[in-house]
Automatic annotation (TrEMBL):
Keyword DNA-binding: yes
One Gene Ontology cellular component annotation held by this UniProt entry: nucleus
Localisation: Nucleus
Full protein name: CENP-B N-terminal DNA-binding domain
Lineage of the species this protein comes from: Eukaryota, Metazoa, Ecdysozoa, Arthropoda, Hexapoda
């Protein structure tokens, strides 16, 4: 019988709405990063990264406010390839 898995980390554990609120507090309302992070429940460094991204892109433009974990994916589950196929063909190249 399978056991229930508990997360050991809170990495990526924020919503798009939380990030929008945090970035808006810092950029538009001139609140400090640490206060905005505390108010929205987002880690300070994460909020700083998204605020910098927003300022670089421009205040009126929209940016991705969620993590992009798909870019770090190694194995892509497909009907034609599974992890054994990938391991067999990638270890010798």
């Amino acid at each position: 019988m399978a056991r229930g898995r508990q997360r050991k980390t809170t990495k990526g554990d924020f919503t798009k709405e939380q990030m929008e609120a945090g970035v808006r507090l810092v950029v538009e309302e001139q609140m400090s990063l640490r206060k905005a992070a505390e108010r929205t429940g987002i880690k300070f460094q994460t909020l700083q990264r998204y605020v910098t991204k927003q300022k670089t892109a421009g205040i009126g433009t929209s940016i991705r406010l969620t993590p992009n974990y798909a870019s770090r994916r190694i194995l892509i589950r497909d009907k034609t390839k599974d992890s054994r196929y990938w391991y067999k063909h990638q270890t010798y190249t």
